[in-house]
Amino acid sequence: MRWEDSGAKGNVEDRRGKSMPMAAGGGLMGLIIMGILFYLTGDLGKAKRLADNITPMVLPKAAPAGGGAPVNPNDANLKFAEAVMGFTDEAWEEIFGRMGQRWEKPTLVLFSDRVDSGGCGLAPSAVGPFYCPASKKVFLDPTFFDELRDKLKGSSADFSRAYVIAHEVGHHAQNLLGYNSLLDQYRKKEGENSGIRLELQADYLAGACWHHVEKKRGILEKGDIEEAIRTAQAIGDDRLQKNARGWVNPESFNHGTASQRLKYFMQGFQSGNANKRALDQFFDPSVKPLDL
Ligand SMILES: [Zn+2]
Q1: pTM
Q2: How many angstroms is it from 255 CA to the middle of ligand 1?
Q3: How far does the centroid of ligand 1 lie from the alpha carbon of residue 67, in Å?
């Protein structure tokens, strides 16, 4: 993927190297935090995953506390994140414009160790990249990309990284379009599995978005789509999480299988269509989430 010198620049906030105080808690506090996360994210799987990893804490009123390293404006991860956020904004502005809606640009926050997500709690790096609907921000510790690179041996993995960001921006799009609240109805009858609807729709949206990026920019190179396929295989079953933590919470399997993720990413990429009909297929009551 040719992203350097594109001139595209989206909103990125660099909080790496800034410390975040934490106080220990546990038990009942953990349950309360999970309840809050569940309410805010509208996604039980994600809430559990976040809550599992968050040491129950008292949120600091003013952060950050420490100085940390100064931000280098030429840092490769920062440059890359700015470019990809710029590409996705361009594409979504066009898609939303066609629907007569206004695209509200999300912000990507780069962090290290842990981060105050501003509405979805204090999250450690181990949760992986995530989107917080309350703050309308995407959170990413770039060390996740190192894991991804190791997983996709030998690949520069540019497009894989872009895919990960585009998926999170897809969650922002569905938040603006109201699908997060629609999930509430499904959660009551389908429980944990209902989250797959939102996750596969985010993959579809990432594909639809990239259809427009490619049309405008023409930046994909030979092998990039194959790279996305390998990424879906690497992260489709939360294998990175298994790898990082040595165990897997089966209840966090709410992203769908690798083949499901690939199917919908490609469907979105080929059609570039984000109209209601295309998006409602993920919330078809006659189709069970596992059968999508
Ligand atoms: Zn997701």
Answers
A1: 0.79
A2: 7
A3: 31
